[in-house]
Amino acid sequence: MAYVMHVDFKMAGPFGDEMAKAFADLAKSINEEEGFLWKIWTENPETNEAGGIYLFETKETAEKYIEMHSKRLASFGINEVNAKIFAINSPLTAINKGPVT
């Protein structure tokens, strides 16, 4: 069963194209994480927030990732990270064209 994880945190920027350039290598490295399937990057410059919606193969790989990612964010000075992990109801998600298998 796949698990979706929502992560958000306060961040002063960069956002938009600057964020895409600044974090391209980080984005590529996320692809190498155990159990990782995909990520949607999220940002809100008006409220200085960023984060993402992730899909992992298992709850354990999502938990392992958020533990590592929280430490990485702390090294950037971001110490308050909100993360929630949810099981996916695949039959209902398929009805609504959710990108999970």
TrEMBL record:
GO function terms (MF aspect): monooxygenase activity
Coiled coil among keywords: no
Top-rank taxon, per record: Bacteria
Keyword Oxidoreductase found: yes
SUPFAM superfamilies tied to this protein: Dimeric alpha+beta barrel
Entry keyword set: Monooxygenase, Oxidoreductase
Signal sequence, start to end: none
Alphabetized NCBIfam families for the sequence: PRK11118.1
Entry protein name: Monooxygenase
Record lineage: Bacteria, Bacillati, Bacillota, Bacilli, Bacillales
